[in-house]
Please model this.
Amino acid sequence: MVPVDYYIILSAILFTIGALGVLVRRNPLIIFMSIELMLNAANLAFVAFSRMYNSFNGQIFVFFVIAVAAAEVAVGLALIVEIFKTKKNINIDEMNSLKG
Amino acid sequence: MSSELIVFLVLSLVAVGAGIGMIFSRNAVYSALFLVLNFITVAVFYLLLGAPFIAMSQITVYAGAIMVLFLFVIMLLGAESLAPSGELPWQKPLAYVLAGILVVESLYLVFLQARPDMVVVAPDAAVNSMESLREMAMALFNQFLLPFEVTSILLLVAMVGAIVLTKRERAGQK
Model:
């Protein structure tokens, strides 16, 4: 039986890797993937705590997080495609205006 | 050392390695594939934690649907490797320092502030069975019915939003 703490440590490390990815990369697709990695780390912590307290609420919350992540990815990728169509470039440093 | 602990340690190495590979590979397609590997290892962790339903949703929704969408957009845009533009020179070292602070801070908060005794072994729950899946569905459709319905509206809005965002120009030309 693996102690719950190990899962929490792993979750913290994965979350930090995701945050580091957001900070060091300039490709918005990679930044998006790093955000997914952070959501995933939070989900892992939720399931670990759900096991620790022997309750389903954590797992149900993870279910909702997965649904919200799917919605977020659909809208975010549509925005990136639209920005690429108008600017011919998706470097995040050049996305500095709200008007196309 | 139990076999479950060995599986956990090996898979956590794979998960962390895939995460690091994701943020440091130059090609965005490799990044997406590393992320798929990470999602699959996390799904195995869910199985170890006795959450088979979440593990299956993780594989079908994340590794299946979301990552296919990512790969589709990467190849549509041809954005495998962007030319590095004039980035700020102090940005990367600062990012590493901040990430180090973040991991130390989170571990400190979880283990030293919240519980100094460090190791909690969860009770052997009977969560890995059909009966538990039925209980979870009962909770989802009774206690959490309103959030469930709100989620369906959110998915509808996201679908309409994605269609409107990508169709806008063609509608303007008519």
User: Anything to note?
Assistant: Chain B touches chain A through 85 residues (CB under 8 Å). The radius of gyration of chain B is 21 Å. Chain B has a mean pLDDT of 82.
